[in-house]
Automatic annotation (TrEMBL):
This is Mitochondrial import inner membrane translocase subunit Tim21. It is found in: Mitochondrion inner membrane. It is a single-pass membrane protein. The lineage of its organism: Eukaryota, Fungi, Dikarya, Ascomycota, Pezizomycotina. Essential component of the TIM23 complex, a complex that mediates the translocation of transit peptide-containing proteins across the mitochondrial inner membrane. Required to keep the TOM and the TIM23 complexes in close contact. At some point, it is released from the TOM23 complex to allow protein translocation into the mitochondrial matrix. Its main location: mitochondrion. Component of the TIM23 complex. Keywords: Membrane, Mitochondrion, Mitochondrion inner membrane, Protein transport, Transit peptide, Translocation, Transmembrane, Transmembrane helix, Transport. The keyword Transport applies. GO terms for biological process: protein import into mitochondrial matrix. Belongs to the TIM21 family. GO terms for cellular component: TIM23 mitochondrial import inner membrane translocase complex. The keyword Transmembrane applies. It comes from Lophium mytilinum. The chain crosses the membrane at residues 90-110.
Amino acid sequence: MTALRRPPQPMRLENLRASCLRRPVRRSTLPRALFVRSFAAQRSLKAASPSSSTPSSGRKHVTVVNDDGRVRWGALSKTEKVARTTQQTFNLGIVLLGVVMTGAVFALLYTEVFSLDSKTAHFNRATDQIRRDRRCVELLGDSKHIKAYGEPSWSRWARNRIIASSTEKDRWGTEHLRMHFYVEGPKNQGVVNIHMTKKPSQDEYEYKVLAVDVKGHQRIYLENADAKDTGKSSSKFLGVRWW
């Protein structure tokens, strides 16, 4: 004989309320994930914004001294942009100053050494002319051993001396270059005097006087424009050459 099943009894209201309170409520994680992503996106946009007035976290504050250019311009604050601009302006000024000084050095080297009208060029040409002159070789000695140098100096580098010279312009516009230096050979020593002129219509200097004075001997003239002019004027009278 089968047992009779009891029909299900309806759950009372009190039991249903208690069951709902004991059951854990599962909250959806989707709104929280969306909130986290939105917050992270806002922080990224704020850090990358060029109008940011504060440096990004995790790096050193950029100043004029420690700026190495690694931080992008857009990531700099207003103060850091001023520091970088100041540093780059200073660096540009240093570069321009170096260029100007280099140009001045090259210009000085050209005018004093490499130019045909430089003092060094006149010094070398006069020395070569003295070595080729027979009268100078007789007084000074072998031309291969004749040396020329500037003013006496306390320096041990006795031959690296300054060549005394002066330049002036007269009222007619003629430039006058005067130099003197010393020559020394196996036999004697001498003093060289140079006077060169360049008129406004001329491009290069020409000799007026090139003379060598050796103690105890008569002055040797290698160039003497005054004597040439005197010889030319004495050979004429009233525009007629007499001899």
